[in-house]
Design goal:
The protein is of the alpha+beta class and 75 residues long. The protein contains 3 helices and 4 strands. It has a single domain, classed as Glutaredoxin, CATH 3.40.30. The chain has a 4-stranded mixed β-sheet with strand order 2-1-3-4, sandwiched between helices. The radius of gyration is 11 Å and the shape is globular.
């Protein structure tokens, strides 16, 4: 399973999403879109928006911290 989390350091929902994934012992790649322009462009291409977090679970895009959808994709 490949999970990418596009986030910024100051976003509370981003922090919640990452802590939630860690609590489930799920490994993920984190991209700070406030400093990584390439990751920011990739996130916008995938989600069509600039808001964070954007979570990519095996190509399925979750916009925001949607615990229910996240659970259904990582279970």
């Amino acid at each position: 399973m490949e999970i990418k989390v596009y986030s910024t350091p100051t976003c509370p929902y981003c922090i919640q999403a990452k802590k939630y994934l860690e609590s489930k012992n799920v490994q993920f790649q984190e991209f700070d879109v406030s400093t990584d322009r390439e990751a920011a462009s990739e996130m916008i291409d995938k989600s069509g928006q600039r808001g964070v977090p954007v979570i990519d679970v095996n190509g399925e895009i979750i916009i925001g911290f949607d615990k229910g959808r996240l659970d259904s994709l990582i279970s």
